[in-house]
Every structure is written in C-alpha cells, then in structure tokens.
Amino acid sequence: MGYTLSVTDAPAEADVLHIQQGLVDFNREQAGDDDYQPLVILVRDESGAPAGGLIGATYWDWLVIEILWLPADLRGQGIGQQVVQAAEQEAIRRGCTHAHLDTLSFQAPDFYGKLGYEVFGQIDGLPPGHRRIYMQKKLVK
C-alpha cells in the first residue's frame, strides 16, 4: 500500500479531526482518559458584553491557561489576578493539582511570576528578538 504527502493551508475539517482523534486515542491507550474539559472565564462590561478573559482547559489533573487577555483599560486593577485565581479554583474543584501556561517575554511573565508560576523552560528567538516562556505552578486547595 502506497502513501502520498500533501501540503495544505486549508485542510478539510474531517482530515484535521481524523488526526486529532488519532492522537487522542493513542494518548488514552498510554495514559488513560484525560478528562478534558474546556474552561473559560469571561470578564463582562456593564452592558454584559465580553470585555476579555481567559481560555483554557483541564486535563490529566492539570489546568492549562491557553489565552489570558484584557483590554488596556482593565489592566493593572487586579482583574487579571482575579481571573487567574477563578480559573485555578475551578481547576482545583475539578481535581487538578497543577497548572501550566506559556507566555511571550513581552506579554506577562512577571504577572504570572507574582501569582506563583515558575519558569521551567523557554525558547529564545520565538518570536524574533523575544522568548516564549513556559511556566507552571502547583495548585493548593
């Protein structure tokens, strides 16, 4: 049986899902069910419209913070800290014991450091002239 390779920047959704499910199945065979659950913390303005927030998930007893964003006028007021703490508390409620994230050197490594996150790795030059920083934290009940 022969195989071919194709390169695309517009894959069919079914093809992407096939690859993702293949990895999910393999991981489950090796490490058990990950109990993956999305986690979103929304910050809403006075009218109820979303102003910012956090997108993440919990899996294998870990919280992952994928995106945390607040508009400039909401930064520096403790709202970001409240959002992260809300995500951590929900993760603990779900049985998580640790959290991890990555951030860029011009984004929020100092912010996360103040919240107890520690650097465990980095990639220099990603993006050029900066660093991608990987951080983790043990969650305490």
Question: What can you tell me about this protein's structure?
Answer:
By secondary structure, this protein is an alpha+beta fold. It has helices spanning 13-31, 79-93, 109-114, and strands spanning 37-44, 50-59, 62-69, 98-104, 118-124, 131-138. It has one domain: Gcn5-related N-acetyltransferase (GNAT) (Aminopeptidase). The chain contains three helices and six strands. The protein has a six-stranded mixed sheet with strand order 1-2-3-4-6-5. Strand 5 and strand 6 form a beta hairpin.
Number of domains in the coordinates?
1
- The end-to-end distance, rounded to whole angstroms, is 54 Å
Number of helices: 3
At CATH level 2, the architecture is 3-Layer(aba) Sandwich
Order of helices and strands: HEEEHEHEE
Shape: globular
Radius of gyration: 18 Å
Instruction: Report on the biggest sheet.
Output: 6 strands, mixed
- Number-wise, the strands total 6
Overall pLDDT metric: 97
Strand line-up in the sheet with most strands: 1-2-3-4-6-5
At the third CATH level, what is the topology name? Aminopeptidase
CATH superfamily membership: Gcn5-related N-acetyltransferase (GNAT)
Helix and strand content put the structural class at alpha+beta
Strand content: 25-35%
Give the helix level as a range of percent.
Answer: 25-40%
CATH class call = Alpha Beta
